[in-house]
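I am sending you the entry underneath: sequence plus fold tokens. Let me know what the token row says about the fold:
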Amino acid sequence: MSLDPESGRPLYVQLADVIESRIRSGEYAPDRMIPASLRLSEEYGIAHMTVRRAMRELRERGLIYTVSGKGSYVVPKPPTSAPEPETAESDESTD
């Protein structure tokens, strides 16, 4: 899968979507390392900082975790969907 610099969507979001798709398909298995940033940068022809931003996006989505000096790994069980936003009702006490 390739990235489209003309799409209007930031490249880091496109890359995060590609990696998320690979995680959900099982290509990148739980607790397994995903390719290094340098490799992804070379594979997609994008800047290293763009890959780093995609990794941050994936961490924010709850799909990967990073071990300093080791790499980024798929979480043991990726979330099935985005968490539901909390409402004011859920903060009220029910006495």
In short: DSSP finds four helices and two strands in the chain. The mean pLDDT is 87. The helical segments are 11-25, 37-44, 48-60, 88-91.
